[in-house]
Amino acid sequence: MASRHKGTMRVSRAFREESNISSDSEEKHPGRRLQHPDVFSALRILVSLALTACFLYQSLGTLRLYLMYPTTMDASTEGLETLKFPAVSICITNWVNKTLLCVKYRQFCNFEPSMIPQLRALLNSAGNLGEIAARPKRIIETNFEDPSLYYYRFVYEDEQIQQTFSRLPKYMCYTLNWRGNSEMDSYHEYPPLFEFSMYIQWRTDQIIVLDDFEVTMDFHSVFVLSAGEVHTMILKPNGNYEYNTEQSVTRLLPPPYDTKCMDYERLGEHPLYPAFMTQTLCSYECQRQITRDMCNCTPTGYPFRNKLSENVCTEQVTGKT
Ligand SMILES: *[C@@H]1O[C@H](CO)[C@@H](O)[C@H](O)[C@H]1NC(C)=O
Known about the structure:
The protein is of the alpha+beta class. The protein has a domain at 87-238 and 249-316. 33% of the residues lie in helices and 17% in strands. The strands form three sheets. Strands 4-5-1-7-8 form a five-stranded antiparallel beta sheet, with no helix packed on it. The termini are far apart. Residues 97, 99-100, 134-135, 138, 203, 206-207 line the site of 2-acetamido-2-deoxy-beta-D-glucopyranose.
């Protein structure tokens, strides 16, 4: 004890005086000296035991949590990422352009409803179907407006509205992506300032009607594509829809959490569209690889079939097994 208080002379001297007293009293009451340390050491042992128990309890709890590898850990970060204008992808029905169809497939000029089964068969298996699809600028019109500055308006140019993927035979999909638009390059970080309107129209004299008129839609980051995803928003003709979008960022935790993180940026951009891979796209690429190796054909549902001229896995190609 004395050595612990070495730093201050006063205290060590006081201690020495105290111990003198106790040695005095020891002479008068022998045995007492033993009694006090007994209580103290018993207390010390008790406290140590209690602390060890607490320590073990907590360690075991942590260990148990670690060994369970819980995967539903939610952490939300707010306000750190800049809010950016999203891209929009839409998929529409009745997308076949009458004129373009006739140019590529002579047998469908002077189209009549009786040819529909034949056309459906073509849409199920033909390659490069994007070539007969309605032109994006003929279906979609856009308008950006700053409500507080009524004179500030602009629209998306051709390069910002593109035919991208498909869900053949029923849907052809188009993506509106502001990258490369000089106005949006400077304003994409201020979505609350702008109102973005989009008009979708079917020119019934220029297209072939095969299904109900319908549009499915999805907002996504401009660096990816919702190809292969089932869009949750379905729009019907004559509807007027308003949306407020919210940006959320999800970060997957590294091991030991079994989140199986994959850095999609490392894979580079998709060969058929300048966007990063997604988990969905990855599994489609995998399917395509397998059917190509096994059956030398591309699955009907492959999202970029509209841009490819490959054997499609129809029943004739794969056999009905
Ligand atoms: C269909 O194709 C023709 C010829 O390229 C074009 O003039 C017309 O605008 C297109 N219509 C649609 C809806 O894409």
